[in-house]
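Hi R.,

Here's the chain you asked about this morning:
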Amino acid sequence: MTPFHFTPGSLPLLVSIPHAGTQLTPEVEAGLSDAARGLPDTDWHVPLLFDFVRDLGASVLIGRYSRFVVDLNRPADNQPLYATATTGLYPETLFDGSPTFTPGKTPTAAQRERYLAEIWQPYHQQIQQELARLKAAFGYALLFDAHSIASVIPRLFEGRLPDLNIGTNDGRSCSAAVVQGLEAVCAAQSDYSWVVNGRFKGGYITRAYGRPEARVQAVQLELAQVNYMDETPPFAWQQARASALQKVLKPLLQRFIEQGKSA
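And here is the predicted structure, written out as tokens:
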């Protein structure tokens, strides 16, 4: 079984969802702390929230494994992406700072090398192959990396996170025209707060593959989970909230497609 779900589409757009997976390896499952067993830092329901992109014609890539096994949105060399508190390629702590693993039960270095080779590498190879296919077919490619996180995590950021957090690696992963188009969609509504390159500027996927000079545009969107689900266990989906949020997400993706064509 592949470590991801992939569905090819008919548009020059790939939607990547790296953190919605909940599958565990035996070693990780046996070693998780009590606090981590419920997989609290998962991007819950993001594939369902963005299911509409299939109707638009986007390709969709979804990781199967939990970030507690290996984080698909961190570099293979585990260099930190942010100067502030964050989690690494193999998260040793939860977002709230509590330990991911019971003492003495952390996976071994050899096991983690296997996770890198068998889970991380195939996901990134699929991104690379699909972006190459899209660029060959259309002359350009668009990558939208979809994420969500609890709206209040004092260890990671002050106060409540804005509802929509667009990351473009400080303008390096996509053109200025793409950013302006996304900003226009956000500014046209008043139900959700938003920011560009705030606390979340884009993880490894956005930074590694966004090459606007080569006509590959990449954007990350980090959503505050409170707008479509319950942020406490069992992390239930809230249809009414999700439907309202999708009324902004759909035009956001449509604008990305439109701007990407001419960028």
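One quick note: The chain has a mean pLDDT of 95.

Cheers,
M.
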